Amino acid sequence: MKGKILFVVTSHGELGDSGRKTGYFLSEVTHPWSVLGDRFKIDVVSPKGGRPPVDGFNLDDPINRKFWDDPEWQEIMSTTKTPDQINPDDYLAIFYAGGHGAMFDFPENKQLAEIASKIYEKGGIVGAVCHGPAGLINITLQDGTNLIKGKKFDCFTNAEEDANGTAKYMPFLLQTALEEKGGLFDGAKPWSDHVVKDGRLITGQNPQSALDLGKQLLSSLS
């Protein structure tokens, strides 16, 4: 093992006022983990700790099935750490997994934003996929600027949110919010596998991008 990476997952399980359940998107955790897990120790943190709600529960996906059937992985995911248990100095990178739940509890979590800022300021990498970039909205660096300002990024796009029928349940549109913070949107066609790397910020558009984002993280950490 060459070091540690911190995965962040949501604790929020309700899709706005839709009456539908949500959570972290399973493949947005398992696919990057499948690339990184043999080289790095992975810890998982969530805003509330413990076992987070899960969405995108597709066990026909062989990578999802492999992890879901692994008792050691289940133990990690059922006992996620809380932000106050995390020492940023322990990690080479932080990665925000998506799932619609992230839209509700990532942006205003000051502890997670401070952890990410400290990891980035000491030369670490910040990654995020799909709705995970909601965690980037309020990451402020020591000079007072927002991490996303002036950097190219991708995320679950406004077009994808509309096509998915979920825009009306969201507290805001993620692409728009990041653009308002000074981010430079660099998205692809809906449902494309698309990853954007701008220095030590690596972002992916949707679940289809999670595996390639893991590969980009691995390449940047190697």
Give a description of the structure.
The structure is a single chain. This protein is α/β, with parallel strands linked by helices and 222 residues long. Helix content is 31%, strand content 16%. The chain contains eight helices and ten strands. The protein has helices at 26-36, 62-68, 71-78, 102-105, 110-121, 158-164, 174-180, 210-221; strands spanning 4-8, 24-25, 41-45, 54-55, 93-96, 125-129, 152-153, 184-185, 195-198, 201-204. It has a six-stranded mixed beta sheet. β9 (195-198) and β10 form a beta hairpin. α1 (26-36) packs parallel to α8 (210-221). The longest helix is centred in the middle third of the chain and has 12 residues, at 110-121. The model has no long low-confidence stretch (mean pLDDT 97).
Q: Spell out the helices and strands N to C.
A: EEHEEHHEHHEEHHEEEH
| Poorly predicted runs of 5 or more residues | none
* Annotation, overall tally of beta strands: 10
Mean pLDDT over the residues: 97
Give the number of helices. 8
Give the strand content.
Answer: 15-25%
From the helix content, strand content and strand pairing, which structural class follows? alpha/beta
Task: Characterize the main sheet.
Answer: 6 strands, mixed
> What is the first-to-last residue Cα distance?
12 Å
Radius of gyration (CA) equals 16 Å
Shape: globular
Helical residues, percent: 25-40%
**Cross-sheet strand order for the largest sheet:** 3-1-5-6-10-9
